[in-house]
Design brief:
By secondary structure, the protein is α/β, with parallel strands linked by helices. Helix content is 69%, strand content 7%. The strands form three sheets. The chain has a five-stranded mixed β-sheet, covered by helices on one side. It has a five-stranded parallel β-sheet with strand order 10-9-11-12-13, with helices on both faces. A three-stranded antiparallel β-sheet has the order 1-3-8. The longest helix is centred in the middle third of the chain and has 103 residues.
């Protein structure tokens, strides 16, 4: 056969024979192990049966013991306990019997177990009946004993009466003589003494009847019960006769009623008789159970014995089979060894190993480059080794030919290498050009950022002068025509500033300077102001602008107010610009979230009825400097509004989406995670707070800006000193003290950071007082603002300077500095009398419409609970810890309008005051809050 002529076929045949012998040995071993496993299973089963037999014997003893305890149970609880124990033991017996009878088909064990369990159930029922009879008998015995005791007590009282009558009669004999004394003596002997004897006999027989009742209940034999019953009936008849001697009608009736109860002694005898009968039945059942358990143990023993005998027979048969198996395995092993040796010599060495050695020697020569003729590997044959020998010969011939080709190839490679070197040099030159171009592009980008920053400063500086001058010009006396011209100029300046802001905002976004801030702000106030701002422009075009605001939204949220205002302003401005008729709707509503959101999302939608945008042009409207006329003519602008809005929405954690169809208007929507805030904000815009007049040093190099800032500060009521550079400012501070410095950070002779440090040092050294400074600059990048605050400036005001922003910055600075001083000053100033009660609280009155009474009560409760802990720690603390605690209490008190308590805390924070009195002051403050709550409890909020 050709399949066995090759090397693989020969190896296959050899290894197949060895595998067949190995398989035969394995089969014989498997047969022997199978018999061993069967024997082991039999041994395990026998051992298990023996263990089950011991368990059954133990359970039998426990059941008999529990059965005896059940028969002697004296209470229902004991009967239920023993009954549950017997039920559990019966179930265990059934489980053991089921395991013993498994595989043997025996039903006698099941029948015995069922009989035992049935007897146990009957026994439990009988015990229950006995307990019932016992309870009834005890009740009946108690009634009979009580009735007998009642008769004995009545007889005793009658005896005492009789003795009293006799004593009285005997006493009267001393005063009588003759026939009267004789009659009295006869009455004593015939009536009174006879009455005493009858009552004595009644009491004695009643007590005997009471003892007989006890004997009836304790009797253990039926014959004794009948005897006692007969005696009791005879005694009852005598008692009924003696009861007639009771002279008192009421007592006679009581005795007769008691005798009626005693007449029911036969019921007691019947109950005791039934009880004894149940006991006899229990003994019969107990004997039957013992016989059944004995029979059960005997049958189980027989089953175990039969299993043990069967196991012995299996062991003998297995021993014979194992001997035969051992002889067969030994023969197969010898045959396998001989066959293996023959195969190794003839097949492996003769046909494989030696030819392979000659082949390896030939390949080693070829590997060393020795191309001499090779020694034949196999002279004859058609197997793989013969083919290998022929292949090596062909390989040698090819190697000789390849040597010639190699020499020709080397000459060609040298030529091609020169060409590749030249191309590589050209490629390196091109890479260097690309690197230079990238560096130039990066430098151009940086130059653009520097140019935009410079333009921001240079353009905002004259814009500051223009808008500030217009603000001051509004306070002068102008005619109506001049007012219209002034409004037109101011509108143009605002438009120019808006375009400038768009360009600078886009440059900041491109440079990566945009970041979202989180601050509390009133959401409804924001959208309502924007709606009111754009509604006149829309109405002028005949377009309705509507606001749809969900009432369930939080009144105050946390987010970036400026960016949200800018985005909504851009969207509403575009809607008003491109809508000729119809309606514009701003919708603000909560967004239904399907998953666990960390913060609630709010959806903003601006929808108009304008011409709409085709689908293929919708993405293009978000590109920078890209405008679309929307079929109604060009409306002006930079084309940056939507590009900036999309990037600002992305920075705040949302996505600006456009949905539109031509002729059906546009819908711009986005959702932002704006978290509910508990911050307290004023319910309505507050007027400018002028405050106390301050000495302020204004350092500004631009003459127009100095004029505008001077006018604003003067309008706010402050005393202003002007300086045009840093050198002049240093000279002025050296001459006199100032309370505040307003510094332009870009001065011609020095920067504002260095000037602030020098001014502060001179003020401390010359005047022994600090000099806070507020930075003023047109560079309003976030990193610029952070840099100024980190350098020591207390606040930052951007250009163009607005009056409200400047006033707020100054007022906030001096309000913070005076927080710990003003309460102390107020203590020494005479307060004019008012009509308000002592517990009046203007701060809470202002917060009530915004927060509601429920939130106010929550804040008061929180202050009372947390403030008490802080007061206790403050009374025990010392040094810096005490000052920190006083500072915390002061902040909480000021937030709730507790000015007097805050002044005490401020004194402690400053190192004065008396810590021991803070507890009483805290109680007074809490009492004032409670009075305010009680007065405002009916507030409609």
């Amino acid at each position: 056969m050709r399949i066995f002529s090759g090397l693989g076929g020969k190896l296959l045949l050899a290894f197949s024979l060895m595998a067949l012998l190995t398989l035969s040995a394995s089969l014989l071993g498997w047969v022997g192990l199978s018999h061993l496993r069967q024997l082991e299973q039999g041994v395990q089963q026998t051992l298990a049966d023996q263990e089950l037999a011991r368990t059954l014997s133990r359970l039998s003893g426990e059941i008999q013991s529990a059965s005896r305890l059940l028969a002697t149970a004296t209470s229902e609880q004991e009967r239920e306990h023993q009954g549950r124990l017997l039920t559990l033991q019966g179930q265990q017996v059934q489980q053991v019997l089921a395991q013993l009878g498994r595989g043997q088909g025996s039903t006698s064990l099941d029948q015995l177990s069922q009989s035992i369990i049935g007897n146990l159930g009957q026994q439990g029922w009988l015990v229950g009946e006995r307990l019932t009879l016992m309870a009834q008998g005890e009740a009946q015995r108690a009634r009979l004993v009580a009735a007998a005791g009642q008769i004995a007590e009545l007889a005793r009282s009658q005896m005492e009466n009789a003795e009293t009558v006799m004593v009285a009669g005997l006493g009267s004999l001393y005063q009588q003589q003759g026939a009267q004394a004789t009659r009295t003596l006869d009455r004593l002997l015939e009536q009174d003494l006879d009455w005493l004897e009858q009552m004595t006999e009644l009491r004695h027989r009643t007590l005997m009847q009471q003892q007989r009742i006890e004997e009836m209940w304790r009797s253990e034999r039926q014959e004794q019960l009948q005897t006692l019953l007969q005696e009791g009936l005879r005694e009852l008849a005598i008692l009924q006769l003696r009861a007639g001697a009771v002279t008192d009608p009421a007592r006679r009736q009581a005795v007769e009623q008691a005798l009626t109860v005693l007449a029911q002694s036969d019921k007691l005898v019947q109950l005791r008789s039934d009880w004894l009968g149940k006991g006899e039945a229990l003994r019969v059942l107990a004997n039957a159970n013992e016989a059944l358990m004995s029979s059960l143990n005997q049958q189980v023993g027989e089953l175990v014995s039969r299993a043990r005998d069967s196991l012995g027979q299996s062991q003998q048969a297995l021993s014979q089979r194992l001997r035969l198996l051992e002889q067969a395995l030994m023969g197969i092993g010898l045959l396998t060894l001989l066959l293996l040796m023959l195969l190794m010599w003839r097949m492996v060495y003769g046909r494989i190993v030696w030819p392979l050695q000659r082949a390896v020697a030939g390949m080693s020569r070829l590997a060393r480059g020795d191309l001499a003729p090779l020694e034949p590997i196999a002279s004859t044959g058609r197997d793989e080794l013969a083919e290998l020998g022929r292949a090596l010969q062909v390989f040698r011939d090819n190697a000789v030919e390849l040597g010639r080709y190699q020499r020709e190839l080397e000459s060609r490679v040298e030529e091609r290498t020169g060409q590749l070197s030249h191309a590589n040099e050209r490629l390196n030159e091109e890479v260097e050009k690309q690197r230079q171009a990238r560096a130039e592009a990066e430098q151009a980008n940086r130059a653009k950022s520097v140019f935009l920053a410079t333009m921001s400063h240079e353009i905002r500086t004259p814009m500051n002068g223009i808008l500030g001058g217009l603000t001051l010009l509004e306070d002068t006396h102008l005619s109506d025509t001049q007012q219209r011209y002034l409004a037109a100029i101011e509108h143009s300046g605002e438009s120019l500033l808006e375009i400038l802001n768009d360009i600078l905002d886009y440059s900041k976004i491109e440079a990566g300077h945009v970041e979202a801030r989180r601050e509390p702000f009133p959401l409804f106030q924001l959208v309502d102001e924007l709606s009111a701002l754009f509604r006149p422009k829309a109405a002028a075009k005949g377009v309705t602008l509507a606001l749809e605001y969900a009432p369930e939204l939080a009144p105050v949220v946390e987010g970036d107010l400026g960016k949200l205002r800018q985005v909504l302003g851009n969207l509403l401005g575009n809607a008003v610009k491109f809508t000729a008729r119809g309606q514009i709707t701003l919708t603000v509503a909560p967004l239904a979230c399907q998953g666990p959101c960390a913060e609630p999302c709010i959806r903003f939608v601006v929808r108009d009825t304008g011409p709409g945008i085709p689908a293929d042009e919708q993405e293009a409207v978000f590109e920078a400097f890209r405008q679309r006329k929307r079929d109604i003519g060009h409306q002006g602008g930079t084309g940056l509004g939507l590009a900036i809005s999309r990037k600002l929405v992305a920075a705040m954690g949302g996505e600006l989406i456009l949905a539109s169809e031509p002729g059906k208007g546009c819908e711009f929507s986005f959702s932002l995670p704006l978290q509910r805030s508990s911050a307290q904000l004023p319910a309505e815009a507050q007027p400018l707070h002028l405050g106390q007049s301050r000495d302020i040093l204004l350092v500004e190099d631009n003459e127009i800006n100095r004029l505008v800032a001077h006018g604003m500060l003067t309008r706010l009521g402050h005393r202003v000193t002007l300086a045009e550079d840093g050198r002049s400012a240093l000279a002025l501070v050296t001459e006199r003290p100032f309370e505040l410095a307003l510094l332009d950070i870009n001065l011609p002779d020095m920067d504002g950071m260095t000037l602030r440090e020098d001014l502060a040092a001179i003020s401390e050294e010359m005047h022994e007082r600090p000099l806070p400074a507020i930075a003023i600059s047109a560079q309003m990048y976030p990193e610029d603002i952070r840099h100024c605050l980190a350098a020591g400036f207390v606040d930052f005001v951007g250009k163009p300077v607005r009056l409200a922003v400047l006033a707020n910055a100054i007022d906030q600075l001096f309000r913070q500095e005076g927080a710990s001083i003003e309460p102390q000053v107020q203590l020494s100033v005479a307060v004019p009398p008012t009509n308000h009660p002592e517990w009046a609280n203007p701060v809470l009155d202002a917060d009530l419409p915004l927060l509601g009474m429920a939130r106010i009560r929550q804040l008061v409760a929180l202050f009372e609970s947390q403030g008490r802990v802080l007061v206790d720690k403050l009374a025990q603390g010392e040094g810096s810890e005490q000052r920190q605690l006083a500072h915390k209490l002061k902040g909480s008190a000021l937030a709730l309008g507790l000015t007097e308590f805050a002044s005490h805390c401020a004194a402690l924070e400053a190192g004065g005051g008396e810590p021991a009195t803070i507890g009483a002051q805290f109680d007074a403050a809490v009492s004032g809050l409670q009075q305010w709550l009680a007065a405002d409890r009916d507030a409609p909020f």
